[in-house]
Amino acid sequence: MKTCLVVDDSRVIRKVARRILEDLGFEVAEAGDGVEAMAWCHAAMPDAILLDWRMPVMDGLEFVRRLRTEPGGDKPRVVFCSVENDLARIREALDAGADEYVMKPFDGEILAGKLAFVGLAGKLAA
Predict the structure, then answer these.
(1) Which of 31-41 are b and which e, b meaning 16 or more Cβ less than 10 Å from the residue's Cβ?
(2) Which of 44, 42, 43, 84 minimizes the C-alpha distance to 60?
(3) Which residues lie below 8 Å from residue 65, measured CB to CB, with a gap of 6+?
(4) Closest CA to 89 of 48, 55, 60
(5) Integer Cα distance of 113 and 31 in angstroms
(6) pTM of the model
(7) pLDDT in tens, the chain (126 residues)
(8) How far is residue 125's CA from residue 25's CA, in Å, rounded to a whole number?
(9) Closest CA to 79 of 110, 117, 50, 40
(10) Which of 43, 109, 87, 40 is nearest to 51 (CA)?
(11) CB 7 within 8 A of CB 50
């Protein structure tokens, strides 16, 4: 079973994402900020990371930059999930190491499409 780490400081967003991801066949773990997410990655590197941009302690941009320098940190598919809609900022996230970007709010169909685009999820929900 593929694993996905949902990193968001909003418990509600984590809960919604968990439900969608479990329906897509993922085993899901959660972290409330980048530091907690990094600790999780050190323990067990996930297949995918759904990552919020703006969080306390360590934001998503700093997290993905650090992740990509870690042993095995090149493996997870990272999908930024944010309200950020400035194209220059989205490009910054992709240049920092994110694989894809999805705007909040999102639904199961949008998330499944993004995960399929980065090589995960495919037709798991079908």
Answers:
(1) bbbbbbbbebb
(2) 84
(3) 96, 97
(4) 60
(5) 23
(6) 0.92
(7) 899 999 999 999 999 999 999 999 999 999 999 999 999 999 999 999 999 999 999 999 999 999 999 999 999 999 999 888 889 989 999 999 999 999 998 899 999 999 999 998 654 443
(8) 7
(9) 50
(10) 40
(11) yes
